[in-house]
Design goal:
The complex is a heterodimer of chains A (458) and B (491). By secondary structure, chain A is of the alpha/beta class. Chain A is built from 13 helices and 15 strands. Chain B has two domains: 84-338, Type I PLP-dependent aspartate aminotransferase-like (Major domain) (Aspartate Aminotransferase, domain 2, 3-Layer(aba) Sandwich); 341-470, Aspartate Aminotransferase, domain 1 (Alpha-Beta Complex). Chain B has helices at 29-32, 49-60, 83-89, 92-95, 107-124, 136-153, 170-177, 195-201, 224-233, 326-362, 383-386, 392-401, 429-448, 450-454, 467-472, and strands spanning 128-130, 160-164, 181-185, 206-212, 237-241, 261-263, 284-286, 298-302, 305-309, 367-368, 378-381, 408-409, 418-421. In chain B, the strands form three sheets. Chain B has a seven-stranded mixed sheet, sandwiched between helices. Chain B has a four-stranded antiparallel sheet with strand order 10-11-13-12, covered by helices on one side. Classes of the chains: A alpha/beta (458), B alpha/beta (491).
Chain lengths: 458, 491
């Protein structure tokens, strides 16, 4: 029997101890007519070699992207991962324990979460951080719910330049609890329209929500947005989908955010087709009682030795049930461990330098690509590591060319913003060499030339 | 044992563990000046790679894990995590794929998702699945949203959700987040849901009953069909918390008994490692009636091609970014494919056998509140030991001295001083006997040397920690200005 450690003799002895003849007798409480008589209809079991071969075929034959040079970003970012991250995080002592309820035998996990909380506080410029949330999108929703609890108001104002999936998730979470959501359009710079924002914020506004760098890659200005909110006692929620930007840009905390939340996949988590990723959240310390998620705190043991425990659990579902600050239980602890190893590996200088590499390469790419006749930078605002290009023809007319040359030049923003016709979101990080950027430029020029020669521009 | 400081305390700004290649593009200084730059984070750590590796290696050695030993944490299903699943989930073809890749380049990934959905349908008897929820509680929330969306489409979302008193805290919390008021249903003397209370509470303003089956006492709700009938008669939905599905595989399918919605925990029943608190995955299964409301995107098979479908007018929307915790899905699929039908059935049989073996051996030594037969776990209490001034926490901590992980304590709330033991199927008789032996010894110690329990654990990296002061004066991050000297006693 696979993954089972009893011999048939063990089973016989155990049945005898229990006082029954066969294991079926253990299931007498399931009514006879509901007991399954036929085996489940599924493919036969596989041995380990068969299993490896089966999944190898799926991963490497049916998935066909390995040869492509990709410039996809939009909420999931390709970054280098130091070997120590995989090596250390895959230790069984980290991978195979449960949530650290028994602190005396979980100090490793607990101390690392405490370090993670500290790193998140440092990066966001806020006072307290939790042990993680599922991802950036659900983190954004949790932040909005938290603002509602804190203000007891009924409306949330968010920028249309926030990642569309984050906005959708916020709407899903809010649709049943009497919170209305209003969106503020973006300007030609690609930033939130401050005048329109100001008009919408009123005494019923629980929070103003802004992402920076936003979905278009444009760095927003936190301060004026949060000031508009604060004038009406609404909270400022800062969303960060590319956590690496926190190493370079002035932090949400220093710019007046009350809550900062987002996605830290960039810190040591591979792209993984979208998950598992890592939601993080930080806030002002006076909001502690309304803060969602697990929190680790420092304390002492009976001998005075320093140690760490899960704390402030009276906020949580297992104590407070329906009055809890969130229903979250299992979070993304192991992903937070990887982020901690990643951040401590890069350190102060490494992280800053990495962020700068992203910045310089993306801006180099933006400048170079915009030199192609017919190709324009869509938004004039400053960017971190991705940007929107306006193409002279629909992307569909370039796609065949790019496929033939094994390039994925970006994501069609039109999927989410119908008004942004022929626009491509291009992401450039440290994994892209100058050569690969120059290749992209060469091929984009070729593709555009071909398409315009074929059918004229639009 | 060497005491491992916080990384910040061993940080030295001259050291580095990571070196980038030189920048190969012209620096974009003009653009840089347009950005609001932050000052460097002064206290951010800097260590060498050898120091970094030792830091985490040493910290890892202070953790207890399933790879190390018996971990009978009730309701958590801490089974062995097969190593081949880790290998498979680290294939570059799975790990390196960007979620926005064109569908024709990720047919393998989409097929993985669809295959798991179909297998979970077969295992549970449900008619459709979403794999998006990131954990059990996320699944509960999603499932309740589906019910609400359906009822809303019929004109009235209703006001209440019924939840038995023995339920996990996430149930009421998830229902509340979905806009419902929670009505608690008392358990009867057998530890199961009281049908007359249910009948009385089940009005046409009740959206759903959230039922854990087997419940948190390990008891199968034998009246499940009648329960479903009572709920359905009033137009409500039966939600099943499938956290304890490890007791039922190949034995019983919730979908066959009137369950409308179920969530599963891939990190419990389907062996994906819990990682010290996640990532998990909480797929939700539904009947046909609720399928149109599933979160977007939905994976659709057209002929032999797979695609993501977003145009679902009745969908509740998104519950997270992208498509779920994909690598967790990969591991769970590998687990199911390795075991097949017979293997899964054996998993549940042996899980239940192991739990009953422990129950039989400890009955009479520890108090059992309910005599009803149990499946995959058994719940004792500290009632017999209380007279020596010893409680369930003391018993749990003493187990650590025997090299074992404690069971779940203080849950479910319906059993005072609970010790909730779930051995899972992967344990050997030798380990089960070791646990039984330790529990018997501890019962003796409780009578003869209670202080041994009250002061436990003894040999651990830290002894019992002061949780009260941790909550009263929260220290939730390291700060450079606070002297955090080791072993100084209270400061």
């Amino acid at each position: 029997m696979k993954y089972i450690s009893l011999s048939s003799q063990d089973i016989q002895e155990m049945l005898k101890t229990i006082g029954i003849d066969k294991t079926e007798d253990l299931f007498v409480t399931i009514p006879e007519k509901l007991r399954l008589s036929a085996p489940l209809n599924m493919p036969p079991p596989m041995s380990e070699p068969e299993l490896v071969q089966f999944f190898d075929e799926l991963a490497h034959q049916q998935n066909k992207y390995a040869s492509f040079q990709s410039f996809l970003g939009g909420g999931a970012y390709p970054h280098f991962i130091p070997a120590a991250v995989d090596y250390l995080s895959n230790r069984g002592e980290f991978l195979s324990p449960y949530t650290p309820y028994q602190s005396e035998v979980s100090q490793g996990t607990l101390q690392i979460i405490f370090e993670f909380q500290t790193l998140i506080c440092q990066l966001t410029g806020l006072d307290i951080a939790n042990a993680s949330l599922y991802d950036g999108a659900s983190g954004a929703a949790e932040a909005v719910l938290m603002a509602q609890r804190l203000t007891r108001r009924t409306k949330v104002i968010m920028a249309a330049s926030i990642h569309p999936q984050y906005r959708q998730t916020i709407r899903t979470y809010c649709q049943n609890i009497g919170l209305t959501i209003e969106e503020v359009p973006y300007t030609e710079e690609g930033r939130v329209d401050l005048a329109q924002l100001k008009q919408k914020v009123d005494e019923e506004t629980a929070a103003v929500v802004l992402q920076s760098p936003n979905y278009f890659g444009v760095v927003e200005e936190w301060r004026p947005v949060f000031e508009i909110g604060h004038q009406k006692n609404a909270l400022g929620i800062a969303l960060v989908a590319e956590a690496l930007s926190l190493a370079l840009l002035s932090s949400p905390g220093e710019e007046g955010a009350d809550i900062a939340t987002g996605e830290a996949q960039s810190f040591g988590l591979p792209l993984s087709f979208g998950g598992p990723y890592l939601g993080f959240m930080a806030c002002r310390k006076d909001f502690l009682r309304q803060f969602p998620g697990r929190i680790v705190g420092e304390t002492r043991d009976v001998e005075g030795k320093r140690g760490y425990v899960l704390t402030l659990s009276t906020r949580e579902q297992h104590i407070r049930r329906e009055r809890a600050t969130s229903n979250i239980c299992t979070n993304q602890a192991w992903c937070a461990l990887r982020a901690t190893i990643f951040l401590e590996s890069l350190g102060r200088r490494g992280l800053r330098e990495l962020a700068l590499h992203n910045f310089h390469k993306a801006n180099y790419a933006r400048e170079e690509l915009a030199k192609i006749p017919g190709v324009e930078v869509k938004f004039s605002g400053p960017i971190f590591n991705e940007f929107v290009l306006q193409l002279p023809v629909p992307f569909s007319r370039l796609e065949t060319y790019f496929r033939q040359h094994d390039i994925l030049p970006g994501f069609q923003v039109e999927n989410y913003y119908p008004e942004l016709k022929n626009c491509l979101l291009v992401c450039v990080t440290e994994v892209h060499s100058q050569d690969s950027i120059d290749q992209l430029k060469f091929h984009l020029r070729q593709a555009v030339d071909q398409a315009t020669a074929e059918g004229g521009s639009l | 044992m060497i005491r491992e400081p916080l990384i910040f305390e061993i940080s030295d700004q001259e050291k580095s563990a990571f070196f980038l290649p030189p920048l190969d593009v012209p620096p974009q200084e003009k653009e840089l000046r347009r950005l609001p730059l932050r000052a460097e984070i002064k206290e951010f750590p800097q260590v060498s790679e050898p120091e970094l590796v030792r830091h985490f290696h040493r910290l890892s050695q202070t953790n207890y894990s399933v790879d190390e030993g018996f971990y009978p944490l009730g309701s958590c299903t801490m089974k062995f995590n097969p190593k081949v699943n880790e290998k498979i989930a680290s294939f570059p073809g799975f790990v390196d794929g960007h979620p926005l890749l064109p569908e024709d380049l990720v047919q393998g990934n989409l097929r993985v998702l669809k295959m798991l959905e179909e297998l979970l349908m077969e295992i549970t008897g449900m008619e459709a699945f979403t794999l998006q929820p990131a954990a059990g509680a996320h699944g509960e929330l999603t499932g309740m949203m589906l019910i609400r969306a359906y009822l809303e489409s019929q004109g009235n979302p209703r006001k209440y959700v019924l939840i038995p008193d023995s339920a996990h805290g996430t149930n009421p919390s998830s229902a509340h987040l979905c806009g419902y008021q929670v009505v608690e249903i008392k358990s009867n003397e057998q530890g199961t849901i009281d049908l007359s209370s249910l009948r009385a509470a089940m009005t046409e303003e009740v959206a759903a009953l959230m039922l854990t089956n087997p419940n948190t006492l390990g008891i199968f709700e034998s009246d499940i069909e009648e329960i479903a009938a009572i709920v359905h008669q009033r137009g409500g939905f039966l939600y099943m918390d499938g956290a304890n599905m490890n007791a039922l595989m190949g034995q019983f399918r919730p979908g066959d008994s009137g369950v409308d919605v179920i969530h599963l925990n891939l990190h419990k029943t389907f062996s994906t490692p819990h990682g010290g608190g996640g990532p998990g995955s909480g797929p939700v299964g539904v009947t046909k009636k609720l399928e149109p409301f599933l979160p977007v995107p939905v994976i659709v098979k057209d002929g032999d091609r797979y695609r993501l479908e977003y145009n679902r007018p009745q969908s509740i929307g998104r519950v997270r970014s992208f498509y779920g915790n994909f690598l967790v899905v990969v591991k769970a699929l590998a687990y199911i494919r390795a075991l097949g039908s017979q293997g899964l059935k054996e998993v549940s049989e042996i899980a239940v056998l192991n739990a009953n073996y422990i129950r039989k051996n400890l009955e009479g030594i520890y108090h059992l509140q309910y005599s009803t037969p149990t499946l995959h776990e058994c719940i004792f209490s500290d009632k017999y030991q209380k007279k020596y001034g010893v409680n369930n926490i003391d018993i749990a901590k003493r187990l650590i001295d025997y090299g074992l992980h404690p069971p779940t304590v203080s849950f479910p709330l319906t059993v005072h001083g609970a010790l909730m033991i779930e051995p899972t199927e992967t344990e050997s008789k030798r380990d089960l006997d070791m646990f039984v032996g330790a529990m018997k010894k501890i019962a003796e110690e409780a009578a003869t040397q209670p202080e041994l329990l009250k002061e436990a654990p003894h040999g651990t990296y830290v002894r019992r920690l002061d949780e009260t002061s941790a909550a009263r004066r929260p220290v939730l991050r390291w700060r450079p200005d606070v002297v955090q000297d080791e072993d100084q006693g209270e400061n």
